[in-house]
Amino acid sequence: MINESRESVVQSATMASLRRGLLAGLALLFVNLLPLLLPCAQGAAAGTGKSKISAVFVFGDSIVDPGNNNNRLTEARADFPPYGEDFPGGVATGRFSNGKVPGDMFASRLGIKELLPPYIGSDLQLSDLLTGVVFASGGSGYDPLTSIPATAISSTGQLELFLDYKEKLKALVGEEEMERVISEGIYFTVMGANDLANNYFTIPLRRHQYDLPSYVEFLVSSAVNFTMKLNEMGAKRIGFIGIPPIGCCPSQREIGSRECEPMRNQAAQLFNSEITKEINRLNAEQSVPGSKFAYIDIYYNLLDLIQQPGLYGFKEVTEGCCGSTVLNAAIFIKNHPACPNVYDYIFWDSFHPTEKAYSIVVDKLIQQNMQYLILEPLDRHSSAWPHAIVEDKKGWSNALLDRWWQLLLQEKHA
Ligand SMILES: *[C@@H]1O[C@H](CO)[C@@H](O)[C@H](O)[C@H]1NC(C)=O
Fold first, then answer.
1. What residue ranges line ligand 1, CB within 6 angstroms?
2. GO: which molecular function terms (predicted)?
3. What residue numbers bound the domain in which 156 lies?
4. How many A from CA of 135 to the centre of ligand 1?
5. pLDDT single digits (tens) 265-278
6. Residue ranges of the chain with pLDDT lower than 70?
7. Inside any domain, residue 406
8. Can you give the pTM of this predicted structure?
């Protein structure tokens, strides 16, 4: 429901300020989530495209693992305090943060559900299976070697779990309904950070085999193969989230100066720019008709928080709330006290952002695409435009963002 005050705020702004806001939104960090939500671009242009979203599925590493590693013999685990201290109920679920992680946020912003559960180990109901799960595993990467020391579920292992999921769902609801859920799902992949930080720059083996550009090329090829396999398995809309500015996480910063480590950041940028080109190519060579692949930028969106922390209400950029060395993450901080003022911090432990930082980044990823998503349907009923949003210097207020989502979801369910 939209309350009175929000409506009057909406009506008070002008069309001119709206256009300024749209242009600002179109700036540098354009992230093309639109194709994911509007698989039939021509239909959308004609105002008839309805983007049905059945479920959200996520593959990747500890950025998005909600607890798949809980029963594994691995140091990449987070099912104990201080993890989860700001999660509903203060529970340490295995999410590598103080609260929710990006998979949860994508699912809730898309109106699917509040939390996106791990596929492994939790007591999943049919309704959970029908609306999406996470196959990600902390410590994983595109390079199969990355998952070995971390005893994480490799990227190939995650695809096998997806196959298992499909079989299970088919047994429960029949093939036709299973195919519908799969083809109307939105898929996100978030991997690559461990391949660089925990493999290439830490273990000598790959450095003996590859120089940095050729290792990045190998990762890109692995990522493309992963995406193609996922597509062959029925995933049509795949949001490909690049590698974050790993040189800026507390454990990777330069010793002494605490500057972001440039080689790691350059490697991440190189991967991101190469995968962007490959994604464009994949869009032309999709194996399932009607598929859309989109590159979603986490690099510059997170870097913006790191470079302008004050703008987002952060005070501490270089240190993690639970510590800043390589040993201030996962099992190494079991029952370790967290800082008292987590909202001041971008990083929770020495590798992973706080829930607040994740939430801002996910909102940015979505906001950068919202105008494209709703422009067509709302233009014709211009009194419904949430004009005031453009005056918000920091991004867009949550209340107005909620309103945009409601409008999008009305479209979705229409
Ligand atoms: C990706 O697949 C192609 C074609 O099957 C293969 O030649 C290539 O080696 C694969 N890349 C990696 C990194 O495994």
1. 218, 221-222, 225
2. hydrolase activity, acting on ester bonds
3. 51-357
4. 22
5. 999 999 999 999 99
6. 1-51, 369-414
7. no
8. 0.80
